[in-house]
Design a protein that fits this description.
Helix content: 40-55%
CATH superfamily of the largest domain: 4-hydroxy-3-methylbut-2-enyl diphosphate reductase, catalytic domain
Number of domains: 3
Order of helices and strands: EHEHEHEHEHEHEEHEHEHEHEH
Strand order of the largest sheet: 1-12-10-11
Structural class: alpha/beta
CATH class of the largest domain: Alpha Beta
Largest sheet: 4 strands, parallel
Bound molecules: iron/sulfur cluster
Shape: flat
Low-confidence stretches: none
Distance between the termini: 9 Å
CATH architecture of the largest domain: 3-Layer(aba) Sandwich
Strand content: 15-25%
CATH topology of the largest domain: Cobalt-precorrin-4 Transmethylase, domain 1
Radius of gyration: 21 Å
Mean pLDDT: 94
């Protein structure tokens, strides 16, 4: 029986992640020594390994404090707070800021409007580095909601932004909560179009297939969201990091005439290709 393996129209590395990875590899070549990233450059173990082979290592902020002057440290696409950038720069480190321009735009907005007296609301995961970083551009005073609900009464003058990987339905819930209780508010839908386009094509494809495979790091928030969206349409949806996690025997037992593939923003093309080849060669 022929198996149809269909890749979602939009899947894999987004502009910001590709930019950060390319830039970091370029910088390492330029300095030709061990360089560092503040936290893993992207949420994908295979790519982290590839970077280590290229003398690029992830370190924590505490470890960065112990680096010698002029060592090179790269800020990843999620961005960080102003305080962190200042701390590294003050230590004399060579800081390369590879924050995605879309995230920098949110940081600038949050900074501008908090200075103008707006209370900042962020829709997102309060523990995600992108959200922690954005909050750091408004003195860590933002109200953070994961789904548009709030435990406390909202203040009157509000500026709302979103983590770039959020779902549109969460954004709509947030706006309607804010509109109900706040008389004056500004709202910037900062959900990245790369995320939206990827989510839409995963949604469409998962309605049409027997099995849906979502490829990406287990700790990648945008991959996890793709998995949630696909699971709503296709009960046989699986989240894997790479081709080694494919359970071919189990797939064979399920109806598998049409298999859909999608991948998170931190999944490189070569992993998507390996998954496609493994399915083709074994089904
Ligand atoms: S998902 Fe969007 S905002 Fe996030 S790194 Fe990629 S391009 Fe930038």
């Amino acid at each position: 029986m022929a198996v149809d393996i269909i890749l979602a129209e939009s899947a894999g590395f987004c502009f910001g992640v590709k930019r950060a990875v390319d830039e970091t590899l370029k910088i390492q070549k330029k300095y030709n020594k061990r360089i560092y990233t503040l936290g893993p450059l992207i949420h994908n173990n295979d790519v982290v390994k590839h970077l280590e082979e290229n003398n690029i290592f992830s370190i924590s902020l505490e470890e960065a404090d112990k680096l010698a002057e002029d060592e090179v440290i790269v800020i990843r696409s999620h961005g960080v707070s102003k305080e962190v950038i200042d701390r590294l720069t003050d230590k004399g480190l060579n800081v390369i800021n590879a924050t995605c321009p879309y995230v920098s735009n949110i940081q600038k907005k949050v900074n501008k409007y908090s200075v103008e007296g707006y209370n900042i609301v962020i829709l997102g995961d309060k523990n995600h580095p992108e959200v922690v970083g954005i909050n750091g551009w408004c003195d860590n005073k933002a109200l953070i909601t994961s789904d548009g609900t709030f435990e406390t009464k909202l203040p009157n003058k509000i500026c709302v932004v979103s983590q770039t990987t959020e779902r549109q339905d969460n954004w709509q819930n947030t706006i309607s909560s804010v509109a109900k209780s706040s008389k004056e508010f500004l709202a910037f839908n900062t959900i990245c179009s790369a995320t939206e386009v990827r989510q839409k094509s995963a949604y469409e494809l998962s309605k049409e297939v027997d099995i849906m495979i979502v490829i990406g790091g287990k700790s990648s928030s945008n991959t996890t969201k793709l998995y949630q969206i696909c699971s709503e349409n296709c009960e046989n949806t699986f989240h894997i990091e790479n081709e080694k996690e494919l359970d071919i025997d189990m797939i064979k037992e399920l109806k598998h005439e049409r298999i859909g593939l999608t991948a998170g923003a931190s999944t490189p093309d070569w992993i998507i290709q390996n998954v496609t080849d493994t399915l083709k060669n074994n089904l």
